[in-house]
Backbone:
């Protein structure tokens, strides 16, 4: 492609418009409240960002393959509850407990994937049911109460929720997880053979299958990946606050999907962008943070989040229409 | 020379005998048209050859060797490529990525599905291919398939089959939903494919197209092959009457007499 053409298609791409909006939003918040760009506030945002961002990476790949997962918020809650129960009440070693949590997440993802691909029920219905099962399980095994706080430093705690300081900024190791996983996801989706398969499956599953692409296996693994990432994010969050709650992550599924689509990934599959998802995650995080700082009443702030998401989606749709016309 | 031979293929779905018995031979460098009304068993036959499902009974020979086709992958490996109107390309992928879908050139092969695509080779091979098949308008290998017309997509799909040196290319309704000019483009392309030595099995509803490109005609009705003729030995009306089971030419004579 000639350079000029490539540049214009980049500017018209959804992730680019998302990036522009993000910069505008950041500028508005920074001007409206000087504290927005303070080291403390940035450190705060960076502590929360990876937790939803990590799930959004998995969700991006899954959406690109044409499926989605509503059970991620519940898995985010259940995984740390199970791990901490094993450690606190069962006296199990933390490493073993984490392994059990991992196996649990793999199982949930595999069940989602198998039902969706082999029985052919839409992922919306399957994962909605799974949301109820998983959330219900978390509530039942804890009898609805948050667990006692658990705060024993160790290798795994440092690995998942350790913190370090750069100047006056305080960062958690979760930021490294997010950066590392993001790079990996960009590589897989854009440059690896698997990424070609994922996009093709979401774009035209029959075409991919006709070329010998194992579409069902790819989807099942993506469901497993998304579940595992949701569990990992849940562990990171629980270790950071040294406690696990059965209602943690309620509503996260929709927030994560919002991050992904705001970034420009198509809900219908075939077109996914990790860069867009990172922009989307930053955008939703800074909106939530910024509108509180500039004094929007807490109860009103979902109105703003909703309106901004809608505006983004309308913008993407208009851009796409324009691109199709030209 | 014989490329593909089917012997007494049978397939039932429950109590429905979709394919009662089908035997025919496809030779090198010929275009054979497979005709029949809806429900005649054409697509069942195609799906059996292209590995969508196994047959209940019967044998398939490729270049005289008896083969078993259990998956689309098996069929592709045997050099049988099937092109469906709407299911052959992924619109959100570039032409280059579509051309190599499922057979991507990669570096560091040991990484399996995580191996990086050899983007330079992908692009070069795609450009060379687009040039070689001489698709009329100059197409960019990086262009998304969603920006192409129906005829262009069809040509891309056919050239992909040619590129992998397919012995047999099955075209399932290749001219459906195409404009007049695009249809001619695709039919011309079919002739070029044949002249390059590939065998083509053409499934279509349009008998006029058949007479433009096919060497031989096979007609199916109710799961059976009811006629097999070379194009030179027959005409449109005869074929039409075989398809419907009614004697059209007699009918026509009658009306004319009146």
Residues:
């Amino acid at each position: 492609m000639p350079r000029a053409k490539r540049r214009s298609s980049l500017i018209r791409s959804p992730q680019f418009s998302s990036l522009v909006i993000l910069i505008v939003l950041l500028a508005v918040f920074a001007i409206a409240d000087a504290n927005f760009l303070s080291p403390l506030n940035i450190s705060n945002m960076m502590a929360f960002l990876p937790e939803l961002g990590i799930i959004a990476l998995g969700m991006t790949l899954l959406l690109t393959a044409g499926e989605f997962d509503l059970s991620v918020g519940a898995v985010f809650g259940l995984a740390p509850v199970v791990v901490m129960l094993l450690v606190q009440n069962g006296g199990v070693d933390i490493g073993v407990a984490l392994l059990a949590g991992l196996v649990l997440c793999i199982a949930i993802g595999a069940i989602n994937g198998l039902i969706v691909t082999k029985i052919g029920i839409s992922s919306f219905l399957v994962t909605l049911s799974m949301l109820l099962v998983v959330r219900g399980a978390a509530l039942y095994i804890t009898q609805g109460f948050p667990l006692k706080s658990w705060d024993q430093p160790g290798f795994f705690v440092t690995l998942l929720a350790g913190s370090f300081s750069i100047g006056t900024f305080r960062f958690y190791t979760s930021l490294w997880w997010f950066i590392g996983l993001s790079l990996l996801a960009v590589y897989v989706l854009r440059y690896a053979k698997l990424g070609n398969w994922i996009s093709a499956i979401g774009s035209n599953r029959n075409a991919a299958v006709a070329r010998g692409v194992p579409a069902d296996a790819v989807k099942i693994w993506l469901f497993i990946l998304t579940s595992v990432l949701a569990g990992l994010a849940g562990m990171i969050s629980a270790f950071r606050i040294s406690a696990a709650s059965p209602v943690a992550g309620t509503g996260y599924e929709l927030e994560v999907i919002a991050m992904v689509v705001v970034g420009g990934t198509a809900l219908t599959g075939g077109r996914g962008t990790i860069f867009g998802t990172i922009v989307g995650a930053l955008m939703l995080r800074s909106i939530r943070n910024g509108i509180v700082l500039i004094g929007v009443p807490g109860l009103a702030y979902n109105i703003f989040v909703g309106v901004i998401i809608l505006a983004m989606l309308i913008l993407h749709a208009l851009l796409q229409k324009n691109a199709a016309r030209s | 020379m014989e490329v593909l031979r089917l012997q007494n293929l049978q397939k039932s779905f429950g109590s429905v005998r979709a394919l009662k018995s089908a035997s025919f031979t496809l030779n090198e460098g010929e275009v054979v048209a497979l005709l029949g009304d809806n429900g005649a068993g054409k697509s069942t036959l195609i799906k059996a050859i292209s590995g969508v499902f196994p047959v209940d009974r019967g044998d398939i020979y490729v270049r005289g060797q008896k083969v078993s086709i259990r998956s689309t992958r098996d069929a592709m490996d045997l050099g049988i490529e099937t092109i469906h109107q709407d299911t052959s390309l992924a619109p959100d992928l570039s032409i280059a990525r579509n051309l190599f879908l499922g057979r991507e050139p990669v570096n560091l092969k040991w990484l399996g599905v995580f191996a990086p695509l050899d983007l330079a080779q992908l692009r070069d091979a795609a450009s060379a291919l687009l040039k070689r098949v001489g698709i009329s308008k100059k197409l960019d290998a990086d262009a998304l398939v969603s920006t192409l017309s129906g005829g262009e997509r069809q040509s891309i799909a056919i050239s992909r089959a040619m590129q992998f040196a397919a012995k047999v290319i099955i075209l399932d309704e290749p001219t459906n939903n195409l404009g007049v000019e695009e249809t001619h483009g695709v039919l011309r392309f079919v002739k070029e494919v044949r002249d390059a030595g590939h065998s083509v099995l053409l499934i279509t509803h349009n008998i006029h197209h058949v007479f433009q490109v096919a060497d031989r005609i096979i007609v199916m009705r109710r799961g059976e092959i009811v006629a097999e003729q070379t194009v030179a030995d027959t005409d449109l009306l005869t074929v039409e009457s075989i398809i419907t089971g009614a004697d059209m030419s007699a009918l026509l004579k009658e009306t004319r007499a009146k």
